[in-house]
Amino acid sequence: MKMPMLLVERFFPGWGWTEIILLAGYAAFLISKLYDVRTSALWRRRSWMIFAVFFFGQLVAGLLGCDKCLMTGQLHFPIPAIILGGAVYRLHIGFMPILFLSTVILSGPAWCSQLCYFGAFDNVGAYSRKISTKRIINRNAIKNSFFVLFLAGTILLRMINAPVVYAIAGASVIGVVGVLIVIFISPRKGKMTHCTSWCPIGTMIQYLKFANPFRMTINQGCTECMLCTTKCPYDALNREDVLNRKPGLTCTYCGDCLDSCQGSHIEYRFFKLSPEKSRILWLIITVTLHAVFMGFARM
């Protein structure tokens, strides 16, 4: 990638430290808003959309001729599936796969709640109407089947040395279908259908997140009022999940459900730390990553 990475430094050499200070202030402000369960869901959505607009804004500026807004000068499809597909097709682990895996190691599934440039739009789609309490039918079968087909198709293209135009065509179809799901299906379902049932990266995170020590649980004091099921856009808090005393696989630890639990029975866990300190630690790590992403959010 081209250096320097910070936006301010690219236009005003030697002044990158001002951006670092601004990002630190932004992170401190955001942590205070996310720590308060009464405002956490709202500010998570706001900050995530700010990041997405900043990311795609630089992409548009780069396409219009501002080279300093591009990372390498080579156009890549800005859809999460290509993080996996591109690495498999090229048999090369580049910047994005390393960045993605690093976030999983540090903050578990936070990629799907605050760090993905595309998921923010699915979040808007899900929240455009009231969050549904109905489980997405055959969700696991759909997402796992698509993941296998996507991976197998990418490997096949590599094995037969298919021209890159075929890979581009496949990526285009996946991207268009993803956009259509965000626009038409997620609002109708009242769930983040693209992220939980379509995106291969979302499927990977469901399982890779267990390499991270953070956990989300429901303690035994739960009264089973089911109010939390009305607040989860990730289809991870259905009646069965509450009765099992832990959110489902698609949980991203976003915390949108915390305000609905009057007894504070939904808890973050990190080894032997208290639930409150575990949540603070997770917020600090995740918001730090989010602020750093803001600093070099470009294609």
Give a quick summary of the entry.
Helices cover 58% and strands 3% of the residues. It has 299 residues and is mainly α. The protein has one domain (7-295).
Written overview of the protein:
The protein has 13 helices and two strands, in the order H-H-H-H-H-H-H-H-H-H-H-E-H-E-H. The chain is mostly helical. Strands 1-2 form a two-stranded antiparallel sheet. Helix 2 runs antiparallel to helix 13, helix 3 crosses helix 7 (119-127) and helix 4 packs parallel to helix 8. The chain is globular, with a radius of gyration of 19 Å.
The end-to-end distance, rounded to whole angstroms, is 10 Å
Quickly count the helices.
13
Q: Radius of gyration, rounded?
A: 19 Å
Q: What percent of the residues sit in helical stretches (DSSP H or I)?
A: 55-70%
Number of strands: 2
Low-confidence stretches: none
Order of helices and strands: HHHHHHHHHHHEHEH
The outline comes out as: globular
Strand line-up across the major sheet: 1-2
Our count of domains comes out at 1
Counting helices, strands and paired strands, the structural category is mainly alpha
Strand content: under 5%
Mean pLDDT: 93
Profile the largest sheet. Answer: 2 strands, antiparallel
